[in-house]
Design goal:
The complex is a heterodimer. Chain A is mainly beta. Helices cover 0% and strands 54% of the residues of chain A. Chain A contains no helices and 12 strands. In chain A, strand 5 and strand 6 form a beta hairpin. In chain B, the strands form 2 sheets. In chain B, strands 2, 4, 5, 6, 9, 10 and 11 form a 7-stranded mixed sheet that branches. The model of chain B has no long low-confidence stretch (mean pLDDT 90). The termini of chain B are far apart. The radius of gyration of chain B is 13 Å and the shape is globular. Classes of the chains: A mainly beta, B mainly beta.
Amino acid sequence: AQSVTQLDSQVPVFEEAPVELRCNYSSSVSVYLFWYVQYPNQGLQLLLKYLSGSTLVKGINGFEAEFNKSQTSFHLRKPSVHISDTAEYFCAVKGQGGSEKLVFGKGTKLTVNP
Amino acid sequence: ETGVTQTPRHLVMGMTNKKSLKCEQHLGHNAMYWYKQSAKKPLELMFVYSLEERVENNSVPSRFSPECPNSSHLFLHLHTLQPEDSALYLCASSTRQGGTDTQYFGPGTRLTVL
């Protein structure tokens, strides 16, 4: 089975500052990794995913994440945030098996202040 | 209409009521999912349907009853709910269950049980 730990429940930052949202996972098998974003009163939207290949993954809205197998991490970064990036961000992991479930972290609430 | 839609967006019901949540996907996918999102808890997978057959039931109480009449529609029938069932219920779909397939989410139904 897999598990996900998002180390920060809330991250406040100022507009145009860089941000990193941390995600660590645990798994006995190789994994696929995902970041989703949830804006207020909306469902989850896929930001980016790591399936294989390059460990640096670029997603929508200027976000990127780096898969680090040795540290079992998949941290999300953006060099300069906007007010509109205020949302909740969820890291998720799926084991590389036929029917492995998508397991989510508890989420990180990013608040961008002017 | 595109993507994954859910109706109603908001629902208030008493503990003795019977109601149904509806999900429809317009993506040509073959797998559909129900998740429960409660405050301060990770997303909980409730049910998975693949090719209209239920393949996963995560120990969900029988007061929740899913139905998948075809690959585009998914229902969650509710009866004699408890106040602790109040949550955001999210529907998702993917090309197939398992593997690298990405799950796409609907906007959710905010359920309040009085």
